[in-house]
Amino acid sequence: MARTRGGFSVGVLAIGAGAALAVAVFAAGAPVYKEGSCVKCHAAVVKAMTASGGKHLDLECTSCHEGHPPAVKAPYPECGACHKPHSADPAGADCAQCHRAHAPTEVTYAVSVPSPACAACHERPAVELAATATKHGALACTICHRAVHTATLACGDCHGRLHPASIMARFPKCSDCHHTAHDLNRWPEAK
Hints:
Elements (H helix, E strand, L loop, with lengths): L1 E4 L2 E8 L4 E8 L2 E2 L6 H4 L1 H10 L62 H5 L3 H9 L9 H4 L10 H5 L5 H6 L4 H4 L13
Antiparallel strand pairs: 1-2, 2-3, 3-4
């Protein structure tokens, strides 16, 4: 049973005596999978690629990986060989801080990722945060945006309840008065 995704037909094959399932990818009608090919041993990689591969789905394994076993330790090109960098000062390892080669559209990161890596894509919040006089300016982006891209802690997760109930009833969202966590003290104009 096959379905089409990103120009590929994706099917599920039973491999081996234990009937372990592997996802096979077929490009333009010509199967990439064959006895002894990548999918036989790297089914998890192919599964990740079919779920979150983005434009990498348009490539064959050999577009990035040459030889098997590889003659060199890292037999794949640097990301910058095909992709434009997000920032003016990228390092080769910067991409891997948020993107995995086989699932590049799935953005994940560790709490240790430095804020400039976030600023490459999220320029406006980074500029606001750098300009703020509040304590938030000293925090790394990953303190509030932990592990899951675009996830945000609620203000109360760190600050508890700072205002009396009467104020909170009138202004239920912190952003009603404090703009954003990146630029806390830009008060709205009085109505």
